[in-house]
Amino acid sequence: xxxxxxxxxxxxxxxxxxxxxxxxxxxxxxxSVPACMNEWYSRNMYAKGLEQNLYHEKTYGSLHDFGYKDFxxxxxxxxxxxxxxxxxxxxxxxxxAGPVSExxxxxxxxxxxxxxxxxxxxxPGRDVVGECTEAFRKKGIRTLATFHHQWLWGWFMSTDNxxxxxxxxxxxxxxxxxxxxxxxxxxxxxxxxxxxxxWKEKVCEVVDKYxxxxxxxxxxxxxxxxxxxxxxxxxxYHTKGKTDGIITYKQEDFPEGIGVFDIECxxxxxxxxxxxxxxxxxxxxxxxxMVQNPKYKSAECIIHQLCDIVSKNGNLLLNVGPYADGSxxxxxxxxxxxxxxxxxxxxxxxxxxxxxxxxxxxxxxxEDADYDTQRIAEQLDKGAAADVRSNVLTGxxxxxxxxxxxxxxxxxxxxxxxxxxxxxxxxNGPCAKKxxxxxxxxxxxxxxxxxxxxxxxxxxxxRKPCEYAYVLKIEE
Length: 476
What we know:
The protein is α/β, with parallel strands linked by helices. The protein has helices at residues 15-20, 41-44, 51-59, 82-92, 128-138, 171-174, 193-210, 226-239, 299-311, 330-346, 373-382, and strands spanning 22-26, 96-102, 142-147, 214-217, 246-250, 260-264, 276-281, 314-319, 354-361, 398-403, 406-411, 419-422, 437-440, 449-451, 456-459, 470-475. Helix 4 (82-92) packs across helix 5 (128-138).
């Protein structure tokens, strides 16, 4: 075995990733068929008494007669079109994207020789990862592969002894039968060598076949033996020669410095000296996959979140789940198009920017938060995920970004009194930035401004150039 030297796989975020700021990914799998509550259906349907279990037995019958594997042929993906997905990504303004490569359910979304349970042999009969990779790259979109399959350890272990997960013939679908306690976040019994080997081989197979620009690991990767985690990182960074590829990871699943730190549904109060990523949902339901009667956050909500994250040296990776047939809800499409329209006009304040000395101004408090291990443990116990939301930003809240010598001030609302008032840029304030010219992106003429000991006061024009947020461009 190769000696474990984590310093040999230390990797800073490449410039393209730091410049991209915004990505999309897509939770799509057999769990999209029942579309009940969330993407943890494949686990919770086997937990007697949980809401998804009760729904399953009422709708589909007993767990012995109708198990998760029986959803495979129902996930036909007849409307899946990778070119349409690529067009949606491009239209949204996202710069990197990809489908979930494998969730916790042992269903690989690529043409896998390691795992016979995949989207080519079952379900849609398509190489989803492969088709998306090709279509996205044609549009100049960087590609993302996400791995959640460490969760498979104990995932399907049921409190119903008659469930189909315990039938020996079904082991290829659900894995080896394990003690029930292995489905905890931090089990007593960690994965054995065979499980860890297959975990690594799945990652390496995707790296071999598709050479993703980002390899994303979901939480709980720490349960995989260190030699296998190291081997996967080493293979991606060195064996394949992916010089500008990057790994993202959560919590303490990998040593600091081997990639980009990701905080699920997360935010920071202040800028971080290191690039980071928050993965979050477009879904307004507490789900990462399509559900019955889906709801979606507003374009304004996502744009404000993106501005806040970017001002603090982060990227936003946004999820949207398609239907089982591979199409997207019209409301999700409309919202992504609105985000794309805003970025098409104001993108210079987002893409390729870096944090300013001060990230934020305004009355709204944004505290450090993420979907931490306590929330994960509660979800495992109750079957329902907690919701992590930030406070709603107001018209008196501003975010700051820079590109070269240019400073961008992003106002989260239109000033009712007709003046933007930016206290951060007051005379003799915390920032020594000279102000020679102020323009509003989307308007040609420079704006009238007054700078005094209270604030930089900028006269708003009569007409808004867009909706949701407004970018003042400040030059010396």
